[in-house]
Amino acid sequence: MGQQPSTPKITAQDRAIFQMKQQRDKLKQYQKRLNVVVLRQTNLAKEALSKGDKERALFYLRSKKQQQSVISKTYEQLDNLENLIGTIEFKLIEKDVVYGLTQGNQVLQKLNTEMSVDKIDKLMDEVEDERLKVDEVSEILGTKNALSNSEELEVDEEFERMDREINGTVQLPDVANDTHKVSFPETPSTELEPEEAQKEEQQNTPNEPLVA
Q: Which of 127, 21, 41 minimizes the C-alpha distance to 82?
């Protein structure tokens, strides 16, 4: 079964406004009845005057005037009552607004107390300390996990052996595309003079061993 909605609490202000609205409605009903009476008295005065009965006609007109005076007073009372109801309702709205502002101000003060500058600075310092610890641990782990050149070479050799066992081939360096080629001296394009050729031949001929 669903939960029944709670009945709104009726305050003293609500009762007072309700009673004033009841009085307002009663005044409006009273005005309607008086208007009917005024219309009836107008018709009676016309009938009496048509019959030549001036006294009765004046009587109805005087009574009509009194009823109209009462109607005017009820209009004044009705206006005052309407203004009073409107003022009370507006004040209640103002009260709710002031109450809401008060509650909001209290919450804001509490938040300002909880989030003071000192607490924020302390929190930021704690966050920075934790970050430095994390960086320190990461640096230590990174140093421990770093491999030396010899270890990297051993890893490469193990990878090659594993590749031979699994694929049966080893990727050799591409000699054709190797940029580190051996350069040889170029052949002279000009012929040497006889003397220069003889000197060149003597330089290239190995020395004979001396005979004892």
A: 21
